[in-house]
Amino acid sequence: MAIIYHNPRCSKSRQAVALCESSSLDVDVHLYLKSPLDYETIHSLLSRLDGDIHNAIRWKDKAFKELDSADIDPTSIESIARFLSEHGHLMERPWLDDGTVTRIGRPVELLCELLE
What we know:
Layout: E1 2-6, H1 11-22, E2 27-31, H2 39-47, H3 62-65, H4 77-86, E3 95-97, E4 102-104
Parallel strand pairs: 1-2
Antiparallel strand pairs: 1-3, 3-4
């Protein structure tokens, strides 16, 4: 079963959930702000990420800019997983994981191939 990591306050994330609901794929919706992801889960998702792991963090978010983030290595899965396990609200969204591939839905059309 695929999982969409969803933030209902995000329009792109809502669009992605709508795409999932209209597909034939069985997709579970995980509200990651209500049920935060641990380091191991994030690390696993990042290890399957189709794309640059740098895109996993909301670098331009005001809340990110208020943090001391000098120790984040944007090329390291371990560093990004550690950061996101502590600051899950700064995870770029949405993420779709089919168990083999994880993809960030920016733009949401990037998820269509996984939903076929």
